[in-house]
Amino acid sequence: MKILVPTDFSENAFLAARYAADMAKRHHYSLHVIHFYTAVSSGFEENELEEDQEESDLLKADLTIKDWVGRLQAQYPDVAISYHNDRGLLEEALLKEAKRGDYVAIAMGTTGASANKNIFWGSNTALIVAKSPIPVIVIPNIHITTAIKKVGLLTNFKQEELTTLQEFVHIFKQEIDVALIHVYKEGESVTSVNNRLDSWGFNVDEFSAVRHTTKIIAPTLKEDKDQDTIPEVISKLIDVQDIDIILVSKTRKTFFERLFTSSVSKAMTLRLQKPAFFGKTI
After folding, report:
1. What are the E-state strand segments in the chain?
2. Which DSSP symbol is given to 271?
3. Which PANTHER family has this protein been placed in (predicted)?
């Protein structure tokens, strides 16, 4: 079984690849690194690409990926790492590749060579998360250990959340503590929210891999009623709690879209500080 790692050869992508390689070493997976090129990324003009398309060995992308993977392999000599280049746009071609191979998950960064949107990364990460046929692990642009003791499960009491937890346990195959994270609306009874979380927690406790469950709750922010402030609240909760990775189901569309897109009114971007595991599209 393999972890699929897309790259644009940036340092941010290399950080994500290191996380994936460390995860592969811990949990006995192999890696497959893939780069999707266009005339721009391969270093050739479009007309040159058409003329020399069959001579793929001449593409700069072929040379670059060999060196890039070699650098990764040197750091993880015990991990089997394969690679190839393919032509196409990331958000389209990666999903097709994910359906082809024996992949357990996609591991990728939040942004590539630039924090700004470009044809490879940025907002495309959210598109891949939304449509991927396999789970996606999104890694922030910082070096993070893959040692996982405690996961944060974003919950709004939906069945899909349990499915996401099951997918995580199936891939990581280890015992974990689970923090149930719920952001409630202003005016809701805290006692009622806690009681509901207690009841919902019984479903999580039934997982044999779950050692212990805790609750983390907070109200939505008050300063901007026109914005969905749940992502900002969750971000702050995760920063102060001892959580190693957050689990997000596809029911939380607003949350993962806001992870990668700007809020115009606040002129800010919610920056992911912990890895996030997104369940596959069912």
Report:
1. 2-6, 30-37, 81-87, 103-109, 136-139, 150-154, 176-184, 210-219, 245-248, 262-263, 268-269, 276-278
2. P
3. STRESS RESPONSE PROTEIN NHAX, UNIVERSAL STRESS PROTEIN UP12
Q: Which amino acid is at 175?
A: E
Q: Which domains does the chain have, with CATH numbers?
A: 2-139 (3.40.50.620), 150-278 (3.40.50.620)
The stretches of 83-211 forming alpha helices (DSSP H) are: 90-100, 123-131, 159-172, 190-205
What pLDDT, on the 0 to 100 scale, is given for residue 119? 35
The sign one gets for the Cα dihedral 229, 230, 235, 237 is positive
Pairing outcome for strands 136-139 and 276-278: antiparallel
Q: Which residues pair with 55 in a beta bridge?
A: none
Say which amino acid occupies 265.
S
Below-50 pLDDT ranges, the chain: 44, 54, 57-58, 115-122, 226, 262-270
Pairing relationship of beta strands 245-248 and 276-278 according to DSSP bridges? parallel
**Chain-centre distance of CA 184, in angstroms?**
25
Residue 175 to residues 22, 106, 149, 157, 168, Cα–Cα distance (Å): 18, 22, 8, 22, 11
Separation between Cα atoms, residue 22 and residue 24, nearest integer Å: 5
